[in-house]
Amino acid sequence: MTCRENSSLFSRMMLWVNERFPLTNIPLFFILWFLSFSVAIPAQATISPAKIALGCLLSLSFFLLLRVLDEHKDYADDCLHHPQRVLQQGIISLAHLKLLGALCVLLQLGGIALLAQGQQQVWLSWGLLLSWTFLMTKEFFVAEWLKRHFALYALSHTLVMPFVIWWLATLASPVVTLELPLIFLMLLAFLCGLIFEITRKCKGPDEDREEVTSWSQLYGRPLSVLMIVSLLILMAITQYFLILCKTGAVSGWFYVVSGLVNFFSVSQLLIFLINPGQRNRKRNEAMVGMAMLAGYILCIVEIYL
């Protein structure tokens, strides 16, 4: 056994967290919750700090559960293609992750019981979310077919995001209805999930491997980058209509900030086309991630201003 394997379970779990569920991603889960309740609650309504904190925990717990389930789903492939990972080295086990996933579910059960206010819609939205998540984990019982249809695979898994938004919205307001601002938010979350999925799997020749499917491998880097740029534009348009439907107006700051963030993102993608490689692929992820975060924050700011 290595010294890492002899360390405490908490230390070993943190090695896995740092590798597969980076703490730097946590603000995104909190922002998704903030934006969901900002859209869901009526104008001039308030939400208690305790409810905000609980909603943050519930949002985080679901995405952690999703990662745990993905680790189980992809375990065999990851043992083959990524033997250096913490889980694949045996530093932690799938049993440890099962316990972590069970804790996430228990937290969600308790949180929903506190926030549901006797409304069945909260339980229904959570049930729909878990049902879609279960189907994703089982790869819709057509795993081999989906693997041969890479784009459909990505779309089917990204479709979890509208279910997440609907659940978070019902947590904020158990009697919320599916109106235009919320529909645009669900679309925005879907687009953000899809754009990041394509960005992280659009690789340079130093990373592309025949046995690991990527967008750049299937469609080529120029077309993959064009898809990312198109989704960035759709993302900005969706943000505009979300704000317009919720508030009735869009300020000039939206155009300035959105334009700048997307300009820098597109510039980085063009740099990647000229000099494709792991370094620029990681920069692509950082810039597109920043565009997503900035878009979510812009929507929150516009709603409250």
Major sheet summary line: none
- Structural class by helix and strand composition: mainly alpha
SSE order, one letter for each helix or strand: HHHHHHHHHHHHHHHH
Radius of gyration: 20 Å
Helix content: over 70%
**Structure summary, number of beta strands:** 0
Q: What's the N-to-C terminus distance?
A: 57 Å
Q: How would you state the average pLDDT, rounded?
A: 94
Please state roughly what percent of the residues sit in beta strands, choosing from under 5%, 5-15%, 15-25%, 25-35%, 35-45% or over 45%. Answer: under 5%
Helix tally equals 16
Q: Unreliable stretches, pLDDT < 50, 5 or more residues?
A: none
General form: globular
Please, could you describe this protein's structure?
78% of the residues lie in helices and 0% in strands. With 305 residues, it is mainly alpha-helical. The protein is built from 16 helices and no strands. The radius of gyration is 20 Å and the shape is globular. The mean pLDDT is 94. α3 packs across α11 (160-172) and α11 (160-172) packs across α12 (180-200). The chain has a domain at 179-305. The chain has helices spanning 3-6, 9-20, 26-40, 49-73, 75-81, 86-89, 94-115, 120-137, 143-148, 150-158, 160-172, 180-200, 215-219, 221-247, 252-274, 278-304.
Notable characteristics:
305 residues, mainly alpha
